[in-house]
Amino acid sequence: MTIQLKEVDRSNQEEAMQIRPHEDQLAFTPTVAVSLSKIALKPDGDEITYVPFAIYSGETMVGFMMHAFDDRSDHQYWINGFVIDAKYQEHGYGKAAMLAMINHIKERNRHCKEIKLTVHKNNKVAKKLYEKLGFCENGIVFDDEELVMSKVLTDADRTADELEAAKLKKILTKVRENNYEVPSEHNPWELTKLMMKYIGVQDGELRDRLIYSNMYRWIKADVFTSEQLRGLLRTSLDQDHLFYGLGEKGTNSVFTRAFAVLIIPLVVGKHLANPFLEQEEISHAVNRVLDYMDQEKDIRGYVYKKGWAHAIAHGADAIDELALVPTVTKDELNRMLTTIQLKFLNTHEVFLDEEEERMTTAIVSIMDRHVFSRDELTEWIEGFANHVTRETCQFLPEHLLNIKLLLQALINRLMSSGSEYQSLIPVIQTTKKKLYA
Q1: CATH classification at residue 408
Q2: C-alpha of 424 from chain center
Q3: Could you tell me the residue range of the domain that residue 20 belongs to?
């Protein structure tokens, strides 16, 4: 049986809230509306992230479940609010959904050692299902009726991946100690494919200091053929890398996206030095990167115990390098400016790790292509103020701060570089003042 878990959002929230079990099961699980309210209320503390999922069989929504977790921990991973609609019970959807959620948790949280859930003491059917899936009572009872059950992840659950990642880390550590020389006993392309498989691991040393650092140096050193670089670009842009878990916020999938997007400017940089990509490959890269930036919701910079994510800054680096490609069209450059503007207009959390500086670098590279008139650039700059309302300023001060930081960074860059676009500084300053009008 094939089922899918899809995050609940505005497009399917109303339908999800219609999910309802049989009448005699109502006491066993909260309503979907109650489960969804936890996202805002955070009853278990600010450190817990809640991600709601609708359960689908084909195009039909058959149930709902919530995943709650603290990804700084190796044991705070919960499955809550699990319900199959009365119309679709006794079709095997419950077991299939549980298996899908268990796999989802394992794949996105490789350091997770334990998954937990609660079950009403009188819900014999659910308890039997959970026991078959490896969950056991751990002796904790909430409110005298909710039994806590745990599934401890054993070696059988993840040995293959963990051993492979550990082996890769050992190899790459040796490569680093040998000044990043290509090891004679390993095929560099095969190692690179393995690195792309683990580019989003939570082990910050493996992800950042070994995988990315090694690929950076090997690409710069011309270790790869043009065809291999093409393959690397395709992989970076695919659904399992740049678009992996896109739309999630606060989950570990961001590391895969954030480091996949960093590979793109490396490949494009080689193309700038010695062109080998076809125009349609460049345009595909532009569109994928901008689609990604439009949809990236996880703006975290440095993540406690896990290292850098910094997805927005890394995306800015990709835009910057693509903007330098002479065959990128004015329409594509215009979409870059639009994407940058909307990212700062629509992000209602403060960028904390100098994302505005990296984005300013991309903006200056776009301006330096000399395809936009002064009037066109003026219109773009003024657009920041034109899209901000008094209501926005009142209720979302973070919204204004991000824009202010970006505009100030652009002023500073134009002044310090002696840019020919210094004449735009008064326009930027006026736009900043309008933000507070």
Answers
A1: 1.25.10
A2: 34
A3: 4-153
